[in-house]
Each structure stands twice: as C-alpha cells, then as structure tokens.
Amino acid sequence: MKKIKIPKNRIRKLKTFSLGKKPFELISLNSHNKKLIDLCSNDYFGLSRDKDLIKAGYEISLSEGFGAGSSRFITGSRPIHKLLEKELAEWLDQQKVFIFPSGFQANIAAIQSLANRNSIVIADKLIHNSLLVGIKATQAKLIRFAHNNLKDLEDKIIKSKPKKSSILVVVESLYSMEGSIAPLREITQICKKNSIQLLVDEAHSIGILGPEGRGLSFNYRSDITMITGTFGKAFGSGGAFIATNSEIGEYLIQTSGAFRYTTALAPSLAAGALEGLKKIVENKEWGNDLLSSAEVWKNEIIKNFSFPVKGDSHILSIVVGQEENAIYLQKYLEKNGFLAIAIRPPTVPVGQSRIRITIRRNLDFNLLKNFIKVLKDFK
What we know:
Shape: globular
Order of helices and strands: EEEHHEHEHEHEHEEEHHHHEEHEEEH
Number of strands: 15
Helix content: 25-40%
CATH architecture of the largest domain: 3-Layer(aba) Sandwich
C-alpha cells in the first residue's frame, strides 16, 4: 500500500509541558509556529491525558479491538459497554443508562423518545443545537421561553395546556456559552405541578456540579424524566449517555434509530470513560476545587478588564460585543501565548460575541497572573 504523505502545514501537533509541577496543554499553530496555552478545552479535569485512562483504552483495544465494528444489536456490544452503563446507573441512581457515540446523537435520541409530531416542546432559548435538531426531527411544535425565566416558562405551559397535546420541557443544567446555571429546583416543581415531562442536558455539569459531581439533576432525579450527559468533557474520554427509568428505557431500545442503527462506542472510549468515572468518584473534591478556582479567575478578570464577564461556574465568557472585536482579542491573546477562541453568531446572538474560557484543574494561579497581565495591556 502506498504511504500517504500529509503536508506539514496541515498538521497540528499536541504536546505537553510543565509550569512548575502542573501540566498544560500546548498547541503548535503553524501560522505562528508558537506553542499556546489552551484556555478553551472542555477537558475540565485533564483526564484525557491521564495515564490510567490511556492505559485502560490501550489494554482493552488489544483484547476487544480498536473499534466496535457494528451496532449494539449486531456484534458491536462488548462487556465494557454493559459495565459502564451499570456503574453509571448506580452512581446516578437511575434505573437505565444507554451509551452513545456522541452527545449530539444522545440528545437527538432523547428528544425522539419523549416527543412526536403531536407534542409541544417548551425549551429554554439557549439550549444546544443538538436538542433543536432533535425537536425538528420529531416535527413537534417548538415554543421557546426566555433563558432561565421561570415566569415565562410557566406562562408558556399554561397557554399550551388547553391544546391537549403532550408537553415536554427541555433545559440544560449548565449552559455552555453563558456559563449560567438553570434553577432546576423551581423548574422541576413547575413541571411536576403541571404533570409535564422534563429533559435535562447535563453535558457540562456532570462530574463537576451537584452532590459529589453527580450533576445538578441529582437532587431532583425523581421529578426529572430523563437526563443526558457526555464523556468527552469532565470524564476525559468520548461518547455520551442517556439516563432514565425502566419504562422509557425499554421504549427507547425498541424505537430509537439513533441507538439501534449506529456503530457502538469504541471499546477504548468506553474503558476510558469508566476509568474517568472511577477517578471522579475517588476525588470528590475536584468539582468544588474547580469552582473555587473559577471564582478567583472571574473576580480577577472583572477587576482588571473593562468588558463584562458572564459565568456562574467553570465556564466564563468575556463579552466584547461585535464579531471583529472578539476576533481581534483572540488574535491578541494568541500573539501573547494563549489560545481562547472567539465565539460569534450564530452560536451567540448578534452583538454578544465573546471570548469563552474554561477553567480546568491544571490551570494554576501563576498562569492567571500572566493572563491578567496580558489583558491589562490590551488596547
């Protein structure tokens, strides 16, 4: 077989280095030939580079193969899939857990299992695109309520109830562009009072927020119909899951094309996710430590920079307004050694372009000092 040569200018090299005793991710950008400190990865605990996760993925690949090779209903199911589902169900105190190759896929499957063309879906205005795609696929009527606005949510429910359609409310526990946290206690009370199903996307909070990192839904799990989450963030692996009760779980298995007709999650990723879960269970302080660190970062940025900063968690957004301003700030940060990508429409509303940074376990306060110094010199 002829060897394919990839031009050097098409390769992005991933490396690591140390600042003191803390590891940091570096990306060698060919346009500048510089190593940048990554401030926008969702690898919140740095587990994607953890030697135990890498070892788990490597060892199971030797015995089970690198890829699953088929769907779960043909020959793609492996013992590691069942074990991961079992351990996650116990940790989350859920009756059924199903794993998927991606969070996008899991969210589509979740929506399709709870809604159809006769349904009304009432969703927060800032829900992820994957949830919107799922709603569109069901042909359900979509009604949006103002972000985290409980009165608007209840008003939309009251107006929808006389139509005698099934109603599904869809929210995220932690919104990835705002860093804002949903008032889940009040939302679950509203849904329970009105006998309405509730779907919560826990992608950015699972492993970090809630009791021992079990998500913000955990305290209200009996009143939440279904949760979704990913392994590609705090868990340091890849893939995603749906957690629900036995009745809906059985319906999902029988009807979900997104689960039935796709190649199963690679055994290596399942093994890595399971190892990531073990690490999170064993290090219950990680989540609170991360939030404490994020609070320091937020306060320092607010104190030393003129633009507003959004975020109630480990996700922070420096809102600069116009697209060109966000791009200019991104390039300025790159020039000074930091990778922080400008987020622009349609991902965020027009006039709210921003630099979104994520605080991670391996970002120490010496790095914060350097970052603040760079921001102070920005003109």
